[in-house]
Amino acid sequence: AKSRGRSRYSIFEPSMGQSLADRAALESDMRIDLCSDAFRPYYQPIVNLASGCIVGFEMLARWERADGKIIGPGQFIPIVEECGLIGELMLKLLEQVCVDAANWPSELTIAINVSPVQFRDPWLSEKVLAVLTRRGFPSRRISLEITENALISDPVAAQRIIESLKNQGMLLALDDFGTGYSSLQHLGMLPFDKLKIDQSFVRNVDTDENAYRMVMAMIRLADSLHLSVVAEGVESRSVLETLQKLGCRDAQGYFLGKPMSMADTTILLRSSQSK
Ligand code: C2E
Ligand code: CA
Ligand code: CA
Ligand code: CA
């Protein structure tokens, strides 16, 4: 009876590893932990390929649970979004970023992901600016990463919010470039500063002729639109060298550095400064 009940009532396939009860437990833990500092910013370095210098970090959220498990955003962001709490979580993480990065070299920019769901909030830009102002953190050091999914449900409203964020001095990056729909239209329409080439292209750039040509075309497109380029998902020296040859400006990936805690980030910055 149990197994029948299971197959009838679970909304997820067993392969997704989550029953309805697991999911409810996760949601309840999440609501409790949102009030503490259990959701922490981790930081992955972004490196300039010509100089080898760190030019900034992408903040990637991690959930450090009481049982010691560290949960990645793939598992909790969708739930936080469904519960209507993603805006709250983002502002909380942003606040922590302002504290963490206050003593880092001032030329480093910190990239922060904005969920498409947040573009339903007409006050998004004002809320972000309020945190930066309160913390005395310069908006030009924040780069907001937006995917094209942000534009699907209400493109006009999203465009207004994006322009407002830009006017407050923040940098804007189009994330996961190449995987969304009608990418080129959005690139021309919106005030982006950066384009992030999705890892699905970058992964094979050194071995696959097609991936190589696609990445080359994306870099040329970005150059002609005066956008800077970040290649995501660099996992080997050979990919890195191919990107260098292609004239890609910045890159990010496990080969260059994994997402790490604030403490490890500070250690990394100290050791790279003394070099
Ligand atoms: P993303 O914005 O595309 O972030 C890049 C993801 O690729 C991160 O996964 C990062 O850890 C991973 N990555 C970096 N280098 C490599 C590599 O060399 N190889 C491979 N295979 N992966 C690499 P992560 O941290 O699990 O985050 C997954 C997604 O969750 C992010 O994708 C982003 O869309 C979302 N996310 C993370 N933090 C936040 C957040 O604070 N707010 C929102 N709304 N979304 C977030
Ligand atoms: Ca991102
Ligand atoms: Ca991405
Ligand atoms: Ca992604």
From TrEMBL:
It comes from the Bacteria. Residues 23-273 form the EAL domain. Keywords: Membrane, Transmembrane, Transmembrane helix. This is EAL domain-containing protein. It comes from Sphingomonas albertensis. The chain holds residues 372 to 646 of 655 of the full protein.
